[in-house]
Amino acid sequence: MAPMKVYGWLVSPWMAKVLVCLEEAGVEYEVVPLSLTNGDHRRPEHLARNPFGQIPVLEDGDLTLYQSHAIARYVIGKHKPELLGLGEGGSVEESAMVDMWLEVETHQYEAAVKPIVWHCLVHQHVGLERDQGVVDESVEKLRAVLEVYEARLSSSSAGRYSYLAGGGSGDRVSLADLSHVPLMHYFTATEYGGVLGEYPRVKAWWEALLARPSVKKVIAGMPTDFGFGSGNLP
């Protein structure tokens, strides 16, 4: 069977989210690199894959998918359903918890951390001014989110660290945890990365995610200057 194809650029947090899942699932895949700088995502051949002109896009045989969460759920559901709280040892309740924390990741965590990453790491390279007011407000929003995470991660009996939706004892990693990796990787490269140290269970959770081979492999291709410093722009 032909390997899955993933179209996009490696420094994208949403591309990375899909790649972590593919690595966790242990399936064969091929990255088809596109150039943001050259506008490859706006070319007719890519618009035929995703009419919104975005990445990532996954092709698996005759199936074409876009939107990172949809792709991630497909890959994991097909090849490693336990990361969705399904399969052996899982339950409808655990799967619902995975879904809930995926929603939290999108609407609470990403909404707070993305402006920090963009203003602190990206804007300086693309001719945009950093708005410190936006950064300060977002850091406070992120602190509020991390307080909730700290309470959640402290509520299990899993020992030194636990996971957001990982079963009754909290000791099973899930897609909900893995989805946080790309933006957290960039956030910890900003001058505000030390905020994690204010939340011991969150910090331990992040360190546990960093230790996973899938995460190590994917973030190795994600320079925290997004390629601007090296000239290797996507």
Layout: helices, strands, pairs:
Blueprint: E1 4-8, H1 13-25, E2 29-33, H2 44-47, E3 57-60, E4 63-66, H3 68-79, H4 92-122, H5 132-153, H6 175-178, H7 181-187, H8 200-210, H9 213-219
Parallel strand pairs: 1-2
Antiparallel strand pairs: 1-3, 3-4
Helix pairs in contact: 1-3, 1-9, 4-5, 4-7, 5-8
Total number of β-strand segments? 4
* Helicity, as a percent range: 40-55%
Which band does the percent of strand residues land in? 5-15%
Mean pLDDT: 92
Number of helices: 9
Shape, per Cα inertia axes: globular
Oligomer: single chain
Question: Poorly predicted ranges (pLDDT <50, ≥5 residues)?
Answer: none
Largest sheet: 4 strands, mixed
Give the topology string: H per helix, E per strand.
Answer: EHEHEEHHHHHHH
Strand arrangement across the biggest beta sheet: 2-1-3-4
Q: Alpha-carbon distance between the termini?
A: 29 Å
The helix-and-strand class reads alpha+beta
Radius of gyration: 18 Å
